[in-house]
Structure formats: structure tokens, C-alpha cells
Amino acid sequence: MTNGIQNIIYLREDSYPELFKRSSKNPIITAKDLPYPAHTIFNPGATTFQNHTLLIARVEDRQGLSHLVKAISEDGVSNWTFDRSPTLVAEANKHPEERWGIEDPRITWMPDLNKWAITYTSFSRTGPLVSLALTTDFIHFEKLGSIMSPDDKDAALFPRRFNGKYMLIHRPYSDGHKAHIWISTSIDLLNWGEHQILLNARNGGWWDANKIGLGAPPLETSDGWLILYHGVKHTAAGAIYRLGLALLDLENPTKVIKRSNEWIFGPEEPYERFGDVSDVVFPCGWILNETTGIVSMYYGGADSCIGLATARLSDLLQYILKCPEPSEDD
């Protein structure tokens, strides 16, 4: 009997490793921290800027519309300073696709441009779509407008070209069909083609069946591009947003090498389980500390606040490399 219990415990620990550990300071940012009135703050893109952690977060006002705001911290956990007013707002007069707000930014440093690229969701009359802005200082922004048609969202760029082409991961969707993760190419960042499915939403009762989407931008490692994505499971009590990993070929990101069968992070704490949209963890950014090897993942909790969880890159890679190759059902 004792051996049986020990075996069960071992299997549980082996099957469900705690890769990401939540900050004891969570939630690290709420709407009360902002210098102006707002309903909620969540789903931040993240990068390093002038040796500080910089977030561009989604803020929802009491009209129900969203804009983006910048937050900066020396340690990436506390003492956040915010712009005194919204950093990036919808400009429907110039960009009609932004009529109902802008949301969920992802930030990628583009060395060939010497600029940061911010992909974000514009909410148009006919649905969400992917828009793009460039910046060198996070004060002045060059909006390039929409780069995908509705319905499309959850997009991020790779930081370098492949055979002279930029690559974009995104998530188109149409009613009556499953929502898969796609990948597309462009020579100018504006006109996109060679569209193909990168990751399929699975069938049946899987945690990531029917609807998946990119989380943070792809992270380059010596083993391949590490992908963090969310999967949505619909239950009798509503949807649950959880996170999984995939690994793409380093020189051909259209090739998926590994994919986790299990979710690695899901809503457990009260600030993740209860809010405007309950049972949601939704990251739009992560930052790798090259010195320590620590990955800091910034995520929205229940569409109401911002949380932080950290993991060792070596642990993430060790985990994903033990995962299976995608099957035909994937």
C-alpha cells in the first residue's frame, strides 16, 4: 500500500511540474495604481528599455473601450511609474478600424529597423483585426494601420527575417470554425501572404480544443523558437483560459518540433479566477534575463489586473523537449 501511494505521488509530480512560479506581490498592478480613472488594466506587452522593465498594458475605461498605457519599473515587480495619461489611444478619424478601441499589445525589438514593433488588436465595426505601430522611444509612435482583416488577433512578429521575409504569428477566426494559430510572411510588414496553419486547435475535450491563440512573442533559444500560447476549454460553468508551450524550428518557424499535451499554467488564484472575465490567465509579454536565465511572464488575470510569474528558461526547454512531436490530430 505504501509503495502504491509513493508511486501515485511520484507520477503526479512528474506529470505536473511547476514551471512558472507566481510573484508573492501579485497582482503587481491594478487599476487603482493608475494616475487617472480607469476600470481595469490587464494583458500587457513587455520588453526591456533603458535597463528597466517596460510594459504596454491594455486599460479599459468605463465606456467599455480600451486604450494602451506605458508602465516602467526598475525591478519589474514594484514601484511602477505610468504615463500621466493614455500612451496610445484609438484614432478613429485616422484609423477607422480603431473605432471601438485598441487592445492586447505584443512588443518585439526589430534589429534591422532599429525600432520596436507593437502589434495590437484594433476593434472595428466588423470585428477585431491586427494593427501595427513602430517606435524608438515609447513616446512617439508611427501607426502603420491594419495589416490583417477581421476577424484576426493575438499577433506578434519574429524579431528577424527568414530568407528576406518577416514572419507574423496570428489567429484568424470565422463563425462556425475552430480558431487555429496561423503564420504568414511579408517583405514590407504591410502586405502579408503565404498564410498557413502553424498550430491546430485540437478536437474533443482537450484543454486547448477548438480555440487557441498566441500569448507572448516567440522567444529565440538555441533549441528553437519557444512559443507560449493559450487554449480555451468550454465548460458548463464557462470558458477556462490556460497556457501551453510549443517549439518551432530555428531556421524554419513554420515547422513545429514539439508541443505540450498538458497545460503548464492556469487560473488558480482569486485574482485569476474572479473578475470581468473569470478563469483567465492571458500573457502578452515575457522577458528573458540573459544573465540569470530567468523568464518573467506578465499576464492579465481575469481581464482585471496584471500578474507576474517567473521560470527558468532551462526548465522550460527541458520540459518542452520531452514533449511529443505534434500528431495528425494536432
List descriptors:
mainly beta; 3 helices; globular; 5-stranded antiparallel sheet; 4-stranded antiparallel sheet; disordered N terminus; 21 strands; 330 residues; Tachylectin-2, Chain A
Characterization of this structure:
It is a single chain. 8% of the residues lie in helices and 45% in strands. The protein is mainly beta. It has one domain (18-321): 5 Propeller (Tachylectin-2, Chain A), CATH 2.115.10. The strands form five sheets. Strands 14, 15, 16, 17 and 18 form a five-stranded antiparallel sheet that branches. Strands 1-21-20-19 form a four-stranded antiparallel sheet. A four-stranded antiparallel sheet has the order 2-3-4-5, with no helix packed on it. Strand 19 (281-288) and strand 20 form a beta hairpin. The longest helix is centred in the N-terminal third of the chain and has 14 residues, at 2-15. The radius of gyration is 19 Å and the shape is globular. The chain starts with a helix and ends in a 9-residue tail after the last helix.
